[in-house]
Amino acid sequence: MSRTESPARLAVRKTYKLYIGGAFPRSESGRSYAVTSSKGEFLANASRASRKDARDAVAAARKAFGGWSGATPYNRGQILYRIAEMLEGRRAQFAAELADAGTKSPGDVVDAAVDRLVWYAGWSDKIAAVAGAANPVAGPYLNISSPEPTGVVAVVAPDDPLLGLVSVVAPVIVTGNTCVVVASERAPLPAVTLAEVLATSDLPGGVVNILTGSVKEIAPWLAGHMDVNALDLAGVSDPGLAVACEEAAAENLKRVLRPAPADRAADWAADWAADPGTRRLTAFLETKTVWHPTGI
């Protein structure tokens, strides 16, 4: 090589980590697994989360719940809108990662994810009016029902690595819940990139925690965790695993949202891919009813 030639530059490879409590730790077990493209080409090593990582994520979500649920709905909507803005700003990166995962029309999928975030953001200060009610009662009382977030929600994200992830996380957090998400095992890289967006979008640390690794390993531990209040099995395709998670969730009476079986494929209530409605917004809300005397 002559003195005038520059040495070949080595690319700075990205390290894909977990996202817990607003930080990016490696798995405490030190494990990782190879992520390949739809053509079998090596893309990166992703962290393989352990049950200890799952416990840490639940603790982070619980710590963040008070502040997030106490924020004004309008503020939560603003933050979701900010996430949409930043996601659109990194459209090319997300599209490239989706293309590697074999997604058809990846640019259109990124646009759909942005639009879905904006759609849910718009519901932040409206869902209480739709889901709440002033109830007629016999007696000198004012009886009002209002929705409140249920708490920490464990979410198994669909195999669609971006739109599926956004579709199950957005309705959970816009209503004031915090969550622990198990990302697509096959294609986790867009989820880690989305975590970078979340970390810089005014979303408080711990509101969303993203784990990568084996769904069969992590999901049952989250289902049985006594500080998890609800469970979304959108990404569980194995009926046996879904039943096992439901049984574990029954220990502390978790709310469970399970995908519709094949004979009810048109049931949009449990289908993240359908046009969004209020069903996913209300799935993880509790109804509080207040009686107040009006005088005699």
Automatic annotation (TrEMBL):
Keywords: Oxidoreductase
InterPro entries: Ald_DH/histidinol_DH, Ald_DH_N, Aldehyde_DH_dom
Start and end residues of each Aldehyde dehydrogenase domain: 34-256
Listed GO MF terms: oxidoreductase activity
Source organism, top-level taxon: Bacteria
Transmembrane segments: none
Signal peptide (from-to): none
Gene3D superfamilies: Aldehyde Dehydrogenase, Chain A, domain 1
Name of the molecule in the record: Acyl-CoA reductase-like NAD-dependent aldehyde dehydrogenase
